Design the sequence.
């Protein structure tokens, strides 16, 4: 099974900051990596797929990069609505998917 | 617009079987470009993939739950189902159904149900 590990588990930042979240896969997954944002009480929302493709309607301050086993999600300038929990997910082994444990982004 | 809606009991007794339905509207479940999947999230914790089904009935399960999980589909009703047997308090979670593209490079889990909280208690 492919294991996904995110870091950090939590992060405090201020509006306007640039933040980066990392996701590592236990084996190479090419670019089959997605990022989701989840707010309390809501289902996750897709942000990025194929490691770097922005989902329609997602602000351009979000970007993704990486391939193989190392991936990053960057938010270039944090907005108040970006404080949430972020998850990576591998789609290499579809239909057997797996998520990272999540990164909680909090207001400093 | 595709919509998914989970339904089922919100309270299940320990050792019994959790049963949930997912109704798909705004699109057909009998599509050759998507799977249908169940995901759960214990309160305050992360997302866990439970299993996935294709409209033909082919299933794929998380090895950690495989001995207790059954997923099925009824294409005539545009629904798919989850059964989880021998539940314990550790199975308390919000259960989501979602659509999963067959293409690994595809846009992932775009559509989710709103989630339903299932509590395990006597």
Sequence:
């Amino acid at each position: 099974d492919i294991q996904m590990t995110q870091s950090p588990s939590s992060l405090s930042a201020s509006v306007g900051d640039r933040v980066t979240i990392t996701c590592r896969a236990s084996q190479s997954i090419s670019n089959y990596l997605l990022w989701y944002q989840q707010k309390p009480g809501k289902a996750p929302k897709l942000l990025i797929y194929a490691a770097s493709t922005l989902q329609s309607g997602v602000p351009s301050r979000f970007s993704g990069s990486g391939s193989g086993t190392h991936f990053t999600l960057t938010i270039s300038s944090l907005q108040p609505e970006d404080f949430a929990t972020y998850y990576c997910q591998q789609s290499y082994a579809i239909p057997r998917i797996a998520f990272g444990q999540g990164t909680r982004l909090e207001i400093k | 617009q595709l919509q998914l809606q989970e339904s089922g009991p919100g309270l299940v007794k320990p050792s019994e079987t959790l049963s949930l339905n997912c109704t798909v509207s705004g699109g057909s479940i009998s599509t050759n470009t998507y799977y249908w999947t169940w995901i759960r999230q214990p309160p305050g914790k992360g997302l866990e993939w439970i299993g996935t089904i294709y409209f033909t009935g082919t299933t794929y399960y998380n090895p950690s739950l495989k001995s207790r999980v059954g997923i099925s589909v009824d294409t005539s009703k545009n629904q798919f189902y989850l059964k989880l047997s021998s539940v314990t308090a550790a199975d308390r979670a919000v259960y989501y159904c979602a659509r999963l593209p067959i293409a690994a490079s595809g846009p992932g889990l775009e559509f989710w149900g709103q989630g339903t909280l299932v509590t395990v208690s006597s």
Notes: The mean pLDDT of chain A is 97. The longest strand of chain A covers residues 19-25. Residues 3 and 90 of chain A are 9 Å apart (CA to CA).
